[in-house]
Amino acid sequence: MAAVSLAQYGTGALVTAGLHPLGFAKVLIQTGYEPLPPKPSVSLFGKESLVYPNVLQYVSHIKKVDGFWGMYRGVFPRVVSGTIGNIVQHNVAEQLKKAVKKKAEDKSEQEEEQELATWLRNFCYDTAQETVSRTCGIIVSHPLHVVTVRCMIQFVGREDTYDTIFSSLREIYRNDGILGFFAGLIPRLMGEILTVWITNFLARLLNRYLVEEKDMKSYTAAACGLVVSHFTYPFTLVTNIMAVNSSGLRAASPPQMPRYDSWLDCFSDLSSKGQLKRGASMFWRYYQGPVIMRDGKLIPAPWALA
C-alpha cells in the first residue's frame, strides 16, 4: 500500500512538473502582466475584437526571454507544496475514517433505496470529512504556495529575491512576519470548501436521479468539479494576487498592481473592473480595455497600455 501511495505521489509530481510552464504563464496573466500586445481578431459571433496571445504563445515568450529552464521557474517549491498537501490530506482522511466508526455499506447499490434524510446525512458526513482533510493539506502546504507564486512573478521585474525554498521562507518572514506565510490563505480555503461541497452535492444528485450506468457514476464528480471550478475561480485568482501583494516585487507593486488592505478589498477591486475571470481562459483571452480605430484597424488605446 505504501509503495502504491509513493508511486501515486511520484506520478502526480511528474505531471505537475511537466505542466508547470502553463501554470507559470497563467500566474503571470493572473497578476495582470501582459508583455505581448493584443491583436485584432474576430469573435465567434463575427464581432471585431482584440485578443491577447494564447497561453502557448505566452510560454514561448517566457522561453525566449529566460531560455528553456526559465519556463520552470518556481517548479520545485510547487511540486513540494503539492506533494506535502496531498500527503497530509490523505493521512488526515485515513485518521478520520479510523476515529469515527461507521457501518460499512455499498452506497453505489443502496443509495437509490435510501430515504432522503439518510442520503443527506451520508452526504454531509462524507463531505465534512473531505473538507477537513483538504483544509489541513492546504494550510500545511500554503507557505510553499506563497513561495511558488513569488518565485514566478520575479520574471516580471527580473529579480532574484526568492531563490531557494529556505531563503524564500526567510525573506517572507523578514518582510511579512508569520502572517506572510499565509497570505491569500482565506480566499483559497473558501474557494476549496465551496468547490468540495457544491461538487459533491451535484455529483450525488446526478448519480441518484440521472446517471444509471454504474461505470459512468465514477466520472460524475470530475465533470461536476470542472463546472464548479469555473464559478469558484475568482477565489483562486484573489489567492494568487494576495500571495504576492505588497511583497516588494515589481509585479506586485504599483503601478503594475494596486496595494490591497485585505483579500476582500482585492475581490471588490477586481469585480469593479470586470477582472474576476482574469487568467481563467488559456486560449481566447479578449482585451477589455479602451480601443481606438487607426487606419481602419482596431487597436488598444495608447494611454491604456502606458
Automatic annotation (TrEMBL):
Provide the residue intervals of the Solcar repeats. Answer: 4-99, 121-209
> Which UniProt keywords are listed?
Membrane, Mitochondrion, Mitochondrion outer membrane, Repeat, Transmembrane, Transmembrane helix, Transport
- Return the similarity comment: Belongs to the mitochondrial carrier (TC 2.A.29) family.
Report how it sits in the membrane: Multi-pass membrane protein
Q: What protein name applies here?
A: Uncharacterized protein
Cell compartment(s), UniProt: Mitochondrion outer membrane
A Pfam family assignment: Mito_carr
Q: Which organism is it from?
A: Batillaria attramentaria
Q: InterPro entries from the entry? A: MCP_dom_sf, MCP_transmembrane
Q: Which GO terms describe its cellular component?
A: mitochondrial outer membrane
**TM helices/strands, residue ranges:** 178-199, 219-243
